[in-house]
Amino acid sequence: MESETMLCTTDQCVEQEPQYTHIDRNEFSQRRHKKQEEEEILICECKCDEKDLESACGERCLNVLTSTQCTPGYCPCGVYCKNQNSDMVKEERPQITRRATRSSALAKSVVEETDTSSQHPNDASASSDIIKEESPQISRRTTRSSVLAKCSNNVVEETDANSQQQPTLDDLVIGEGESFSFDDLVSSFPGKESQIKELVHLLGPQNSPMLPIFIYGGSSTGKTSIVLQTFRHLKRPFVYSSCLTCYNPRIMFESILNQLFLHRKKAENGYSSAKRCERPSDFVNFLREALVSIIGNPQGQKSGLSSKRSGKANGNMIYLIFDNLERVKGWDKGSTVLSLLFNLYDTLKMPEVGLIFISNTSPDTYDSNMGYVEPNPLYLPDYTDDDLGQILMRHQANKKLYTSFLSVVLRPFSRITRRVDELSSAFSLLFRKYCEPITDLGVFPNEEMKRKLFSQFQPHIAPALNEIFKVSTQPSTEVEARERKPKVSTRKSRGYEVADQLDFHMSTSAKYLLISAFLASRNPATLDASLFDSTGGSNNRKRKRKVSEKSMEQKETAEQELLIKGPGTFPMERLLAIFQCITSVAEDPLDDEEQAQDGLGIQDGHCGLMSDVLLQLTSLCGANFIVKGGSCPLEGSTRYRSTVSEDMALQVARSIKFPLSKYLYRR
Amino acid sequence: MGRESPAEKALILLRTRLCDPNFIFRPLCESSDSNYSKLKFLVSSSITEACNNSILLLGPRGSGKIAVLDLVISDLLQEYPDTITVIRLSGLLHSDENCALKEISRQLCTEHQLLFSKMASFDENSQFLIAMLRECGLAHKTIIFVLDEFDLFALGKQRLLYNLLDALQSVTSQAVVIGVRCGSAFGKRVISRFSNRKLLFLPPSKEDIQRLLEHILLLPTDSGLPTDYVVEFNTKLQNILADERFEEIINTYLNIDSTIKDFLRYLFRSVSNMDLQSGMLLLENFKTALSNIQRHPKMECIKDCSILELYILVCMKRLEVKEHNSYNFTTVMKEYKSVHDSFQTSDYYAKNVCLRAFEHLLQRGLIEFIDNRGQNQSVEYRPVKLLISFHQLHQGLKSYRSCPAILQKIMDREK
Amino acid sequence: MAPPSSASSGEDSSTPDTTQSQLQHSFLLHKASDKLISSGKARRRRRSIDLSPTKTDDDDKKQSDDERWLRMEAFQLVWSRIESTINHVLRNINARVFDHIRRWVWDSFNAIKPLATISPGPFPLVSQVTCTQLFTGLLLTNNMEFVDDISTFQELGLCLKSHGCHVANLSSFDFSSKNGIAGCLTSLLRQFLMSTFDAADMSILASWYSRQGNYGSPVVVIIDDMERCCGAVLSDFILMLSEWVVKIPVILIMGVATTLDAPRKILSSNVLQKLCPCNFKLGSPAERMDAVVEAALVRQCSGFAVGHKVAVFLRNYFLNQDGTLTSFVRALKIACVQHFSTEPLSFLLGWLLVKEDSKGVQSEKAVKLASELLSLARNQIAEQTEVTIVHSLTELTKLQKLWSTVVLCLYEAGKCNKTRLIDLFCEALDPDTYNLLASDGLTGTGKGFVQSLSSDHCMLEQNLSYRKGRLICQLLGRVRDLPAALLCRLLNGWKNLTVDVPEIHDKVKELQSIVKLDEGSCKPDLKEISRRHTSRSPLKIGQSQSINEKAAILMDCMVRDFMKPIECTAFHEIVCYRNVENLQSALIGDSRKMIQVDLLEFHKTLQCSCCRRSGNIPLPSMPDTSIMYTLAQEHGDLINLHDWFQSFKTIVIQYSRKGTSKLKKSPLKKRKERNESENKSEASIQARFCRAITELQITGLIRMPSKKRRDCVQRVAFGL
């Protein structure tokens, strides 16, 4: 209920100030929500019969009496359990539909109610035998090719169709209905023919078991697309799970199981997954169950099953594809998950299962403390230059023009990177620039035209080579392009020249604090006493010179130190001390600056500078100018480190007329 | 499904064989001194004498311990129809006692058609286990515990092992515990409880390999395949097996990794290369399989690198040669600049581009951070180390298509 | 004055406390609310003081409290006006950028849509490489401080929502490394699906999006402050989104506080690769500041005004302390509160506003009250009748209007080269300048004005020549050598500004006609004439004055005749708040410094006779904590606990010695007394020492011993 009111408010409350956010459960700031272990789930012993649903978890229910909520999927009453959080109850969940006529909306909701009632056995409490009855049943429906023709208006009814009819094994097959020949496959991946052949060989003919495959190669060499398109070509059922999207074991297990149980998360089942599965052991059990239920029991009557299966999904092999496998190394207890996956084939002992691992690091980087039988390696090398040319040439309107463009840019850029995505995004901007002089883009460039274009285009190449992250500005905001121009230039060649003015606002005290942090990170702490004397920076120039002479011999070591360690860390006390010295020194520039306005500003201006330094410090930390390092082992106090580049610091100093270079301990 | 050509059928048959351990290991089991017969003798004797027993199967990974064990158990199940209950645990899945016991009782329940409740606590489960052990002992039924990845059970507090082995001390119970492990190091406390019966699994001998090859690759005449095809196939295959080039291919492979599973993997690779038109296995299949299955990942990575990345690698190598004990991106950049200044190279790029190349190298696994705890430190300053040797880099540069001459020169000079 | 203070603190908690609850960790020692309370206390004291004469008899009593009621009402009236104006201005500033963003969002959505496939199963089937890129808007809030922009992002979210996008507002707290990627996914799903999942997953979002009614409109994810996010989590999030972008057309909008390099700093290159960025700029805080000042203070949305010193203080506070608009508004509010609480006549301001609204409810009562108060406050004889008050008040408002018009004209003149309005404002409020001019008899009110244009007269420069860098003089000079086109624009602007000030309006019109006339004649010589005139000293000005000259003179006359600072007008204390010290103490309560000062010069507060004479020699009669702290002054930043205790003990003991030596007893008895009092006092002294140290630690002046140096405490106190 309240969700509906919620939506309405958000829809109209554009003018009204306060915006309410709907909180479903308490968010504890100090401790996190504890995940419910399977042991701790309380099961009531209610029995409910279909006749009177009132019998399900009523007042007599143990959990109701102990005022705990039944865990969905564990309560014996299954979906009829009434002892549920109000927003978990599906039926009375309001459907907000943006429709023109409200009659159709009504129809929609009615439909949904009916199919929720029909969905019940398929819900979280689904048991394998039910699935086994459902999966073979043939459901004729509109050919999916119409769907794959991606026009967005029939998408809606498509989703309706999905929500209504029973999903079958064919959902594990992509692109059936259309024919996708081997030649199409090869032609869509230039320079990868041999690898694709190899892959097809390894997958073998229909119904032929296979040992696990390990596909690896640099990023954006088309590993995932090749595998997926190959399956699209072979039309075999497979289960895909990317370890990037499934960011922890539980989600990976559950997504695999969902696909195998032909279960879709949708509003009707409260976006819950088919099985709740956290442990590897449960995963293996469920996986066996699911595979058995799909393939039919490993011995015998394969043929009968596959003949029953409407001929769309070929063969009775099920392939499990694990993508982005290298991400698993980053998980906690990732090594055990890896060894589980690598040994999955031997653990399952089901020849109908094919495992495919996709990773962008070679197999020798997966060293687990306990070994595994290595899967079959299949290597996808990076693209050569002419492959790159072909790939970039696809989806181009005017191929001639683009070839002339590529002949200019491709070689220099491929010296830097050979990744398709980086190159294509870099070129898409450059090509626009290249075409600027041309009026109609359909023109076939002749030699002298190419020459002219090149001569105009030449100056843009070098900056583009040295740029990895080009931020384009909205054409509609070109009104203030005038004052944006200088920044653009500095952005392009960052690291070469210094931006002339600071293009964001910082309060003066924050600037001083930033500078002092920079000094504290940059200078060795031993020199503070000689660099700053609290009386003021009157005579510390010659002092400094003396110091630098004294520390002549430390120079190289110190330099190495700096390069290795980077900016040093410092406790807050040192920062405050330096800050005080700087501000006391900077009296005079501060003064006449204030003086220009009038005499009065100084003292409150200055005593203000000292006032809420800690506040400024936190906001500097927030802006990533200062990072709060881990507390150093020797003393308990937290230490800070400034990450400001030197030109940035100089820029800030210039903006407040502070002689920074005087205090820099030059090496 | 009658539409497949005989070649395809044959291919499917071969692949099915290769993926079926029972089929593979059957021939290795005839001889009386094989592990199979020893193991079978041990288990069956403990069944007949109705006593407790514990056996340890040792051997490198992939030497077919589990497969042989399965053979034994399946045969025993046929010999003694309903006196054996097999409980299979794997250290990978059940290393923590709690879920191990849960799993045990689950399997017991399914075995004896009892109702298993997910919610039973640890103690209930252990009680249940003890009770079951006693019952089975009284009923003269043997429970065989198979503990795969045994060393993972031996980690930690080993409560499970203690429970089991203590239960076995009692005379009433009647169970066999078979531990399967690949490592060689032993936890002493476990061994003290474990009986010293160990079976060692060795890599296959030459004859075994030969037997395997014929056993696997030769097509049966009785299957649905046309006989003339089968005859032709087998003769061709015999010729290949007799060929000494084939001999040395196999030997080169077996020198690398020698366990049976690896060998099967190799055979699978070569079989899957079989040409479906001719439908015959050729010597080339085995050659290509060899080249495909032995990869040199680092060299491939170097081949994939862009020229800028090569520069960075060379700079790091130079730093290593100069005995800089540790270096990070900034030092590498300094080196890069010095190289540029001394040789006037054509490609000298801005810092952020180099940083991107640096990150590419990290992703390729050619370099890695020395410590993975310096999270708050930015990438430029975290110390890194090269994962390739000087020789590898040198070879890589040599085999690189269009490697700049300067890099070659630098490397040669450093040598 | 309890009601206004409480009310104000309530309102205050409504506006900035929303931000504070979000940023509480970074607002550890923020002082807004409690300072308000304290100033409320101070107010009460002062109030009781300045109404002491009237406090005698009961009718004055009732009069005083209905006067209090009047003031309270006046405050609420005025402040509500100011606040609404400020909000309005800020919203208008953002409107244009929001519009751009909206257009961009829909364009990029139309760019994505054709690529979006409805492939079954939870995996994207990517047709080409580039479509895994994520359209990303980088919204530059050119302010390192983040406080001002929270509401901005909320409004952006609402604006997009109202144009039919699905919007989720994430902040850096969702990207903490503690909760990891699960945390931000959970909050994302909560905002879209309005329910929480323990296993948050993108596939849920996908199936939600494919539902009817959700499909076909962009999904916008707004991340308020990108710099504060944990880099690893943010990059995982971006990778995940870019993997799903073909199924869920997500469009990312990230607020960048500092520079465009910020993403490059926290994200690695392969993540940057996934972004297809495009940047937008919010109005810089300086611009917003000027807009707010113009709307709230110059244009006199409510009669409330601030004095020169206060203006300067506000400006410096904005420039030197945290440069946030929020704090500026807070400062303004405090000023307003204090004005209405301290200034006895301030309620008349409320009455003025009411009178403007022409519903004189209790005006006569107010006026009567005012007259009595006047007769009380400045003890004058009673020809201060209502008439004079009303008259002078209207006069005051008129002058104010003139003043603001002139200031706006100057601002208009300064616009072409970015004169900051707030500086101009501070200078225009300066009473000394005006008094100086007045002393030279150079200021006329309106009547000298007419012939002052034609007749040659000396410009301000001579009078003000000794003052360097006056903004107004710079402006004059600038107007002199203004190119003709800009000059025309300037005159137009002036004409629009001075519609309701006839005198100036006519002059401007006149000038414009001359310009029109000169349009025919050659412009270049006009230019060079003007240049010649600027080069020459402007003393002898013939009829051949260039337009620029005329304009300059016009401006000059405006300044001297109509720009009368509020503090120079009669009755200005009704509308004008001038008390800088209170405001400053209310805003910059330097807590650490205050604590140390109180510890060292405690007798100022204690007012005790015993330890006044001591300079800073610790005396036993001092409180322990201050003894300890004075002792600590001798040490460096590391204090050895033992020495500290010894010196503390010696000081305290001599007191107990004195105490014991008073009473006459037999020596041995005395000795027994002594040493048992010794070891009694020993324990008590240790106890006092420990308590004092704990207090010092609690006040944050020292830090407890670290593992390395167990015997020492560390001084954390600076700023004295």
UniProtKB/TrEMBL annotation, chain A:
Give the family this protein belongs to, as stated in its UniProt record: Belongs to the ORC5 family.
- One GO term (biological process): DNA replication initiation
Q: Provide the taxonomic classification.
A: Eukaryota, Viridiplantae, Streptophyta, Embryophyta, Tracheophyta
Tell me the InterPro entries matching this sequence: AAA_16 (IPR041664), AWS_dom (IPR006560), ORC5 (IPR020796), ORC5_C (IPR047088), ORC5_lid (IPR048866), P-loop_NTPase (IPR027417), SET_dom_sf (IPR046341)
Q: Where is this region: Disordered?
A: 91-146, 530-560
Organism, per UniProt? Rosa chinensis
Coiled-coil regions listed: none
Question: What is this protein called in UniProt?
Answer: Putative AWS domain, origin recognition complex, subunit 5
Keyword check for S-adenosyl-L-methionine: yes
Residue ranges annotated as compositionally biased, kind Polar residues, are 116-128, 136-146
Tell me which UniProt keywords the record has, alphabetically: ATP-binding, DNA replication, Nucleotide-binding, Nucleus, S-adenosyl-L-methionine
- Residue ranges annotated for the AWS domain, each copy included: 39-90
Q: Where is the composition biased (Basic and acidic residues)?
A: 548-558
Per the record, its GO cellular-component terms are: nuclear origin of replication recognition complex
Q: Where in the cell is it found?
A: Nucleus
TrEMBL record, chain B:
The region annotated as signal peptide is none
Any matching Pfam family? ORC4_C
Q: Which residues form a coiled coil?
A: none
What is the scientific name of the source organism? Answer: Rosa chinensis
Full protein name: Origin of replication complex subunit 4
Keywords (alphabetical) are:
ATP-binding, DNA replication, DNA-binding, Hydrolase, Nucleotide-binding, Nucleus
- Localization: Nucleus
Note whether Transcription occurs among the keywords: no
The record's comment on protein family reads: Belongs to the ORC4 family.
Q: Which InterPro entries does this entry report, sorted A to Z?
A: ORC4, ORC4_C, P-loop_NTPase
Question: One MF term from GO for this chain?
Answer: hydrolase activity
- Origin recognition complex subunit 4 C-terminal domain ranges (all copies): 212-396
Q: What is the lineage of its organism?
A: Eukaryota, Viridiplantae, Streptophyta, Embryophyta, Tracheophyta
UniProtKB/TrEMBL annotation, chain C:
Q: Which residues form the Origin recognition complex subunit 3 N-terminal domain?
A: 46-348
Pfam families noted in UniProt: ORC3_N (PF07034), WHD_ORC (PF18137)
For bias type Polar residues, the affected ranges are 15-25
Location(s) in or outside the cell: Nucleus
Q: Which UniProt keywords apply?
A: DNA replication, DNA-binding, Nucleus
Region of interest: Disordered: 1-65
Q: Which residues form the Origin recognition complex subunit 3 winged helix C-terminal domain?
A: 592-718
Please classify the protein's predominant subcellular localization into one broad category.
nucleus
Return one GO MF term.
Answer: DNA replication origin binding
Per UniProt, the ranges with Basic and acidic residues bias are 55-65
User: Low complexity bias located where?
Assistant: 1-13
**Assigned GO CC terms:** DNA replication preinitiation complex; nuclear origin of replication recognition complex; nuclear pre-replicative complex
Q: Which InterPro entries match?
A: ORC3, ORC3_N, ORC_WH_C
Listed GO biological process terms: DNA replication initiation; lateral root development; response to sucrose
Report the family membership: Belongs to the ORC3 family.
Protein's recorded name: Putative origin recognition complex, subunit 3
Whose protein is this, by species? Rosa chinensis
